[in-house]
Write a structure and sequence with these properties.
This protein is of the alpha/beta class and 294 residues long. It has nine helices and 15 strands. The chain is globular. The chain starts with a strand and ends with a strand. This is Ribosomal protein L11 methyltransferase.
Length: 294
């Protein structure tokens, strides 16, 4: 079953109160994670041991309107309006274990393979992206990532510029570069994603052609021949005015992170400026693609 997680940084003193607020907002579970991944000692009986810097992570059904959740949480005294948070689709944990334990290289489209470093490359003449699981989302196992990779493989990227909006691990930008793109630009709100993308680009020998930005640092008037955004339905709708201006006239747009029940609403946010293709669907998730109108 698909899920969405909401991550909020807090302190050990406030974590329990924030947990109650997350449950009241519709979270089916809340977990705490040490922001700095520091080791901790076993708590005493009945004690909940939290860290000085704690991430509270709420898990929500993927159908949840996260804009409503955020609006509800903005009324909490601990948070307030505009509080810093991160929303992301959750990788299936069984897939994650499968990747770590006995995953084999995966093929997407006709030319592209995603290969973990501990496996031999099945076809040295193919387009091979070496990628291991890490700090940021995106290894190819999730249907949304898979559909985006297949779409990129089907495009003529030779000499093109590609923007990966919400780049995560950098998998889509790196794949585009290895498929022939001249340059790629990755944008993400998470500094860990920027670092993961940079590391993965270096591992694949394309770091000199990949520029990475947090939103506050990205240059004005960015544009590209191809723009891909594998995030979530809510942000895709809300950020449509920003994402829509990125492709040049005649440029390609690919959107994913969208459930089948959400596809129409997302498509409607872009149809005025794009000639949209039929929606592609895989395991409850969808991909929306199109070409920018002149």
């Amino acid at each position: 079953m698909p899920w969405i997680q909401l991550k909020i940084n807090t302190t050990g003193n406030d974590a329990e109160t924030l947990s109650d607020a997350l449950i009241e907002s519709g979270a089916v579970s809340v977990t705490f994670q040490d922001t700095h991944d520091n080791p901790v000692f076993e708590p005493l009986p009945g004690e909940t041991l939290l860290w000085g810097d704690t991430d509270a992570i709420g898990l929500y059904d993927a159908e949840t309107d996260m804009a409503e959740v955020v609006a509800m949480l903005e009324n909490e005294p601990l948070l307030g309006k505009g509080f810093v948070h991160k929303i992301e689709q959750l990788e299936d944990k069984d897939w994650e274990r499968e990747w770590m334990d006995n995953f084999h290289p995966m093929r997407f489209g006709q030319r592209l393979w995603i290969c973990p470093s501990w496996r031999d490359v099945p076809d040295p003449t193919a387009v091979n992206v070496m990628l291991d699981p890490g700090l940021a989302f995106g290894t190819g196992t999730h249907p949304t990532t898979a559909m985006c990779l297949e779409w990129l493989d089907g495009l003529d990227l030779q000499g093109k510029t590609v923007i990966d909006f919400g780049c995560g691990s950098g998998i889509l930008a790196i794949a585009a570069l290895k498929l022939g793109a001249a340059q790629a630009i990755g944008i993400d709100i998470d500094p860990q994603a920027i670092q993961a993308s940079r590391d993965n680009a270096q591992r694949n020998g394309v770091s000199e052609r990949l520029s990475l930005y947090l939103p506050k640092d990205q240059p004005d008037n960015l544009s590209a021949d191809v723009v891909v955004a594998n995030i979530l339905a809510g942000p895709l709708r809300e950020l449509a005015p920003l994402i829509s201006v990125l492709p040049v006239a005649g440029g390609h747009l690919g959107l994913s992170g969208v459930l089948a029940s959400q596809a129409q609403g997302v498509a409607e946010a872009y149809e005025a400026l794009f000639e949209l293709d039929p929606v592609a669907e895989k395991e409850e998730w969808c991909r929306i693609t199109g070409v920018k109108k002149a």
